[in-house]
Amino acid sequence: MDWSIADSRPIWLQLEEQLTKRILSGEYPMGSRMPTVRELAAEAGVNPNTMQRALSALEGSGLVVTQRTAGRVVTEDQQLIHAARKEQAAGLIAAYLQGMQNLGFTEEEARTYLKEGN
Amino acid sequence: MEQNLIRCSGLRKTYGRFAALEHVDLTLGRGKIVGLLGPNGSGKTTLIKLLCGLIQPTEGEILINGQKPGPYTKSIVSYLPDRMYFADWMTPRDILDLFEDFYADFRRDRAEAMCASLQILPDKRIKTMSKGTKEKLQLILVMSRDAQLYLLDEPIAGVDPAARDFILETILRNYNEQGTVLISTHLISDVEKVLDEVVFLCNGTVVRQDTVDHIRETEGMTVDGLFRDIFRAMPYRREPAVTEFPRMEGGEQQ
């Protein structure tokens, strides 16, 4: 997955979202060590202080844990990952329903459409 | 150690009757990448040359790490001018020798490794290099110093987008983390995400100093968008009868 800073919201927020996606998709597996701030910043082409802020936010939500010996690692708390995944899923569903509504479908129709696949 | 790396107070620089900088009070901390942004002729190059000690202020004071520009500050400042200043018969090897002689903080191994990764041959004359290669070589030299302050005057002007990415990544991977990088440019959308902070210059005065994410939070737009908003110039519209041309102001200072 490539990094993209596409919109006008704060950059650290966009980085936090993309780091979260990488953790939930397993690109950074549970319990694995995160790359260093400087490495991530260079890879994403962003300022290291901004990347630092995004990682601090991830620590705040618990997805990343700082260990004294290993540095920053991805959490091994399955429940936390599961909850975060569900949260993302809820966002996708809401976006789908909104998109369908904009096309003139009712919520019921949108659900049936999704189930039947056409 | 001084807490602020750069302190300018009441800075003023005039060229004849033209004031290139006026009432500039500016403080910059350490460990930051700062964008010096402004349209052509807003005083960016003048400010950088003052910080380098290449020109002297008409009024006011500049302190870098608590000292006025001089031999000490030159030993901790790494400067990328907006044009190539090496003789064109020289080769990268000659220039590396020169930098090694000149600067105690020059890391020759780093410069050689970067040249090798770009396939810049040590014995190829500068004369025979493309403009983009020359700019990259110059940046490699400047970023191979463990300086406190990097002053980069238009490092990405005049190179293609791929070279821009290379230049920005080189800056990110090589700057000294205790040091500060000041990048002047008008290509804001390209550099916005590598910056902590921006300083907007307009007609020789600082009109805004803020962090990139604070601007995005409070203005709801990118720094590039804000810049276009602040500096939007009305295009000249032809009137039926033109009696007088609008007076031109500014222009790049040499």
The main sheet of chain B comes to: 6 strands, mixed
Q: State the order of secondary-structure elements of chain B, H for helix, E for strand.
A: EEEHEHEHHHEHEHEEHH
Average pLDDT across residues of chain B?
88
Strand order of the largest sheet of chain A: 1-2
In CATH, the architecture of chain B is 3-Layer(aba) Sandwich
Using the alpha-carbon principal axes, give the shape of chain B: globular
State the strand order across the main sheet of chain B: 5-6-7-3-8-9
General description of the model:
The complex is a heterodimer of chains A (118) and B (254). The relative contact order of chain A is 0.12. In chain A, strands 1-2 form a two-stranded antiparallel sheet. Chain A has two domains: 11-76, Winged helix-like DNA-binding domain superfamily/Winged helix DNA-binding domain (Arc Repressor Mutant, subunit A); 79-116. Chain A has helices at residues 11-24, 37-44, 48-61, 78-102, 107-116, and strands at 64-67, 71-74. Chain A contains five helices and two strands. By secondary structure, chain B is α/β, with parallel strands linked by helices. Chain B has a single domain, classed as Rossmann fold (3-Layer(aba) Sandwich), CATH 3.40.50. Chain B contains nine helices and nine strands. Chain B has a six-stranded mixed beta sheet, with helices on both faces. In chain B, strands 2-1-4 form a three-stranded antiparallel beta sheet, covered by helices on one side. In chain B, α5 packs parallel to α6. The longest helix of chain B is centred in the middle third of the chain and has 14 residues, at 161-174. Chain B is globular, with a radius of gyration of 19 Å. The model of chain B has no long low-confidence stretch (mean pLDDT 88). Classes of the chains: A mainly alpha (118), B alpha/beta (254). Chains A and B meet through α2 and α3 of A and α6 and α8 of B.
